[in-house]
Amino acid sequence: MSDIQEATKQLLDVNLHVKQRSVPVTESDIRSESEHLHVTIGATVPTGFEQTASDEVREKLGSSCKISKDRGKIYFDIAVESLAQVHCLRSVDNLFVVVHEFKDYQFKNTKEEVLKDFEDLAGKLPWSVPLKVWKINTSFKKKKTKRKKINQNSSKRKIDNGQGDKLDERDVKKEFTNHTLGSHILDFYENPAIKEEISTLVGDLASCKDETDERAKEETESQVLKFRVTCSRAGEKHCFTSNEAARDFGGAVQEYFKWKADMTNFDVEVLLNIRDSEVIVGIALTEESLHRRNITHFGPTTLRSTLAYGMLRLCAPQPTDIIIDPMCGTGAIPIEGATEWSNCYHIAGDNNPLAVKRTANNISSLLTKNQIKEGKPSWGLPIDAVQWDICNLPLRTGSVDVITTDMPFGKRMGSKKRNWNLYPACLREMGRVCRPGTGRAVLLTQDKKCFSKALSGMGHVWRKVHTVWVNIGGLHAAVYLLKRTPQVFVHSSEEDEVLGNANNEDD
Q1: pLDDT in the model for residue 411
Q2: CA separation for the pair 181, 186 (Å, rounded)
Q3: Is the pTM of this model over 0.85?
Q4: Beta bridge partners of 75
Q5: Could you please report the per-residue DSSP string of 220-288?
Q6: Contact (CB, 8 A) for 395 and 358
Q7: For 92-107, what is each residue's pLDDT tens digit?
Q8: Are strands 73-79 and 38-44 parallel, antiparallel or unpaired?
Q9: pLDDT at residue number 493
Q10: How far is CA 459 from CA 64, 428, 445, 493, 501, in A?
Q11: Which residues pair with 73 in a beta bridge?
Q12: What is the pLDDT of residues 24-40, one digit of tens each?
């Protein structure tokens, strides 16, 4: 049996028997589910960018996607082989596997009856397949963490060895063996080329059922799973609170599986999402939001990487495009751009030297992380950081293809009063450096009134194409997609001269 086959069988060791109670599964069920293991994945995304996330899912996974009525959520079906590709999506924050969806749940009239229904619901749900997916997902995360530690230790030992310390040959051999196995396991997720081989191996799971059951039983006897239930609720016609629903449903889940409740140090997080008459039960696949991927040095207004990706995707970057963020802050947008659109050139700039330093540190941290992951020197990223004045950019007229930035809201940065002068000056300078006819800009701001006023005075340079309404930390903000008009930029002195000549002709 090859290393890949062995690693794959370890990953597909998904029978989740617990000490006191197990989900009943027959041998035929195992073979059927393993050969056709498709599940529905739910994902939270930045509000307003549901369509962008849906487009990414269709593009990268080939799956149809449903946008939820509950803002900031999407749902799509995948085969288990695509689970790691789901974790690589750039537009999603958190992931969960759907246990069951009730599109029109019939709530009883009294609180007691509703909560009793939630208690009864726990034993009626199809937990088996979602728990298998959770088990696979957990195995993947453990192997990934293990390989990361091995790579870090390897790098550290190379440094130590250079200083004259001797390595224990047995430790090196053991480390190499573990690293090799971990790499094969990760290949299952990260290398689509072996997808076909994996699909044929999945069917072999039933043949090793007895061995799998025995191992699972031994593991669960030594450790009972800990869990918590998290309830999110929206709607005005509910006679119960989120805490009451989570408490009673969680108690029933605990009784059904014989798990141990733990609100902080838990293994499994069961989700109960309620919106009006829609109820969705799920199991979380992410411990923390996936937007925490690029930034290590934060500022007062650091933008989420998922939102940065959505903004960049709106402007459809093309190969060889020059993309700038003239008010980059900690560099979230250009770093995300350089990571996903490496065939473009990205410039991060800010007038604050501390912001530029943070951006440079974030770029350096990302390069170090990539080097550790790949185990070899990195060639770098197509990005530069520079300090400049947004109203006087050191760039040639018409030299930039895309401008994407998070403009000061006037809350934590700047002021509403200052924006009345800053916004028109920014739009004018952006119009100067942006390429006429093909250039575009994606600008985020919560100061919508000031922005609309500034934009109305620049109608000859910028044309508004689309507006996406988003929620930024509880603030109602807007992302504006602008298109650069074909009109050649005219400097102030030249513009005054043109206007003067026009007035003389009228006389």
Answers
A1: 52
A2: 9
A3: no
A4: 42, 66
A5: HHH---EEEEEEEEE-S--SS-HHHHHHHHHHHHHHHH--EE-SSS-SEEEEEEEETTEEEEEEE--SS
A6: no
A7: 999 999 999 999 999 9
A8: antiparallel
A9: 56
A10: 39, 11, 18, 19, 21
A11: 44
A12: 444 344 444 444 688 99
